[in-house]
Amino acid sequence: LLQTKSKINDILDSFKIESGMNTQSRFGLKLNSKRHLLPFKNGTIDWGMRDKKGLYIPPKKPFRCIEKEDYISMYIDKIYAGKYNRPNKFPFTIGEDTFESREEYDKEYKYLWNKLDGLFNKTLRRGYEREYVKNCIGYGQTGYTHFKIFLALLGDLANNGKSTMHQVLKAQLYPFCNTLSCELFTESKIDACKLEPLRTGIRIGFVEE
Question: Is the pLDDT of residue 9 over 60?
Answer without folding.
Answer: no
